[in-house]
Amino acid sequence: MTTTMTPTQRSQSAAPSRRARLVPSIVSGLVLGLVGGLLVALIVAQFAHGSRGINQIVVAGYLGWAVFFFIGIGALNYPMRWAFGRTQPTHNEELELAGRGQGPWRYFRFCTDHKVVGIQYLITVFVLFIVGGAAAFLIRLEQSTPGAKFVTPGTYNTIVGVHGLLMIAATIIMITGPFGNFILPIAIGAKDMAFPRLNALSYWLLFAAVPVFLSVFALGGFPTGWTGYAPLADQANAGMDAYAFTIILFGLSVGVSAMNIVVTVITLRAPGMRWNRLPVYVWGWALSVLLGAIAFPSFMLAELLVLSDRVFGTAFFISALGGSQWLYEQLFWFMGHPEVYVIALPSMAVVAEVVSVFSRKPIFSYKAVVGGFVGVAAIAMIVWAHHLFWSGANTPLDGPFMLSTELISIPTGLIFLAIVGTFWRGRIWRSVPLLFALGFVFNFIIGGVTGLYLADVPTDGVFHGGMFVVAHFHFTLVGGMVFGFFAAVYYWFPKLFGRRLNDRLGRAHFWLFEIGFLGTFLPLFYAGEHGEARWQANIPVQFATPNLVSSLFACLLVAAVSIFAYNVISAWRSGPKADTDEWGAKSLEWTVPTPVPLENFERTPVVTGSSYDYGNGVGAQPGRSGSAYPREATAGGATLPSPEP
Ligand code: HEM
Ligand SMILES: [Cu+2]
User: How far away, in angstroms, is 478 Cα from ligand 1 center?
Assistant: First the structure.
């Protein structure tokens, strides 16, 4: 990528006082939120009555928590300022809000710097994975032997639901949250996101949802699994209110973040950054969040209707009172299936990028990859009812939905062909990010092929509701998408933290995770094919062996993730310093210094070439510092300035 620069001003100011640091911050947010939530719940408790009384109190409490939390964290300061016609904040005030001079405390404030928001998302994703992973371990423990020995079936239901929901939420944001916020604006040559305050809000909406969801444990859990099906959801205990309210806050966060990323890519590209010069991952991430913004409102609507049934006594999902239980399934899966591609597209995009960088070759048909992303995003919106093949809801439409589901293999295949084609005659650097990219390709193919059986009505009839389905979507979601996430962490960690992850630990993480993963889920295909149903705390004895094997291999996953955690923490604390352009890649984020300055670029870049311009594709392989990779490169006739020392 070739660039030339134009000027921007920046000035310094004194650090804020102790009180100014605490208010507004997470501290004032939590305190005001908790007090506000309790207060509103107490007020409503005066009027609440009957069997729905508890739901009215709980939901009112959540509303109070959310509103007062946002006041306390300072999210409404600017809208208030605007509403009372006060002057626009000065550049200095904007830099203050972006965390200038606040050190690590800026991560605990309503901070508008997209890089801070990116790191906030990354830490939150790690926390969600840890809690979701702990639930997964409990699942494997319970299913390691027949007899429901460790938890009761009711508790098991909640654990499965908590696992599924947390993991889905984590995987939805795992790439577009951290990297979409930190890397994307730099990759297109922008100083920040289009709406920095809304960007901060999208993170704190997510944050505000976490305590609401965790309160599910204090409210007796929820029996529905991650899908939250009504009418069971209408009858369940108060834990279901936590589930529904969480979805609404999470949905708002996803929507606000999506709008920001899409508008940023459309309006803030640097001069010369044409659509066909965008790094391919920018396409994947923007399409993913756009898909999420289109799909998620139907899930939020479903939860609003569930809350209305539970709090006001409407009957949207109670067929005996004129409602329809199929309505919930339609609204849920209208979101549920596109959402797996909201998760898939960012990982596929990272893999395409990583394969190109470590093959030192342009992507094999950039247009095919981008066309594939667009095709997947479009068809993903018209396949949802394959989840209702056995619900009796849409029988006349089963044929068309079978066809549309099959059709999605075409753009997916296009993306995979282009990824595999990029390796061809490349100079392969078997780096850790590339290992995870290879794992993604291998695992996702197994996940994709096994999906064909579930796309067809007859075979789906055999596997629906069984462990074959569980194994299938773990091969796509974990074997595919989570591997894409690991590739992204290993690839961009040097830019995010200015440090290097340990290569040997990275390889140990990869192999332990791959072997553990295959050993955990391959036996579940076998058990599912032989008729094992899902959601069973007490597994039938005839499935004891495959489940024991699965649970033993799941221990390798714990070991792999522990190595990863150790690698990340020790590198962040004291790892060797990374180079500005760690991998010799060509996209813009590798041209800015590390740590990245508050406003990213000294001068706005002007782009005159593609970010995959490796000349004739046989550029020298970059090594660690002192590498053979020349710091000055020519591409597209312009000179790339050497990065700041
Ligand atoms: C890596 C470790 C993981 C293990 C060992 C694991 C294991 C399992 C098992 C055994 C079940 C089926 C429980 C049952 O039906 O009785 C399950 C359900 C599920 N898992 Fe995972 N899982 C893991 C990671 C993930 C990840 C990363 C995701 C990402 C999205 C995920 C999403 C789900 C979902 C959506 C369900 C369905 C929950 C429900 O039926 O309500 N899992 N998991
Ligand atoms: Cu689906």
Answer: 9
Q: In 3-state terms, what secondary structure has residue 638?
A: strand
- The secondary element (H helix, E strand) that includes residue 257 is helix 239-267
Q: How far apart are CA 51 and CA 312, in angstroms?
A: 11
- What separation in Å is there between the alpha carbon of 87 and the centre of ligand 2? 50
Is residue 163 lining ligand 1, measured as CB closer than 6 Å? yes
The closest alpha carbon to 270, from 188, 353, 213, belongs to 188
Distance CA 383, CA 334 (A): 8
Could you tell me if the CB of 290 is within 6 A of ligand 1?
Answer: no
> For residue 558, which ligand has an atom nearest its CA?
1
168 lines ligand 1 (CB under 6 A): yes
Cα(60) to ligand 2 centroid in Å equals 34
The residue nearest atom 32 of ligand 1, judged by CA position, is 164
Model pLDDT for residues 215-226, shown as the tens digit of each residue: 999 999 999 999
User: Mutual orientation of helices 153-173 and 196-214 as an angle, nearest 10°?
Assistant: 170
Across 18-58, where does the E strand assignment appear?
none
Where would I find the beta strands (DSSP E) of 3-59?
A: none
Please report, for the chain, the start and end positions of each structural domain, with discontinuous segments joined by +: 23-83, 111-574
Give the Å distance between the CA of 403 and the centre of ligand 1. Answer: 27
Omega before 411 cis (within 30°)? no
Q: For the segment 93-131, what is each residue's pLDDT rounded down to a tens digit?
A: 898 899 988 899 999 999 999 999 999 999 999 999 999
Closest alpha carbon to 144 in 530, 551, 554, 519: 551
Cβ atoms 414, 372 nearer than 8 A: yes
> In percent, how much of the chain has pLDDT > 90?
84
Rg (C-alpha) for the chain, rounded Å, is 25
From the CA of 167, how far away is ligand 1's center (Å)? Answer: 8
pLDDT under 70: residue ranges of the chain: 1-16, 18, 615-645
- Residue pointed to by tokens 């589901």: 405
Is 482 a pocket residue for ligand 1 (Cβ < 6 Å)?
yes
Tokens 């998302």 found at: 121
Is 74 a pocket residue for ligand 1 (Cβ < 6 Å)? no
Residue 452 to residue 440: CA distance in whole angstroms: 18
CB 165 near ligand 1, within 6 Å: no
Q: Which residues pair with 466 in a beta bridge?
A: 533
Its pTM stands at 0.92
Q: Distance (Å, rounded) from C-alpha 576 to C-alpha 567?
A: 12
The dihedral formed by the CA atoms of 225, 230, 231 and 234, expressed in degrees to the nearest 10: 90
Q: Which two tokens stand for residue 81?
A: 């300022």
CATH class for the region spanning 111-574 = mainly alpha
What CA–CA distances, in Å, run from 25 to 74, 208, 248? 7, 13, 23
The C-alpha atoms of residue 103 and residue 116 are separated, in whole angstroms, by 11
CB 132, CB 167: distance < 8 Å: yes
Q: Which ligand is nearest to the CA of 332?
A: 2
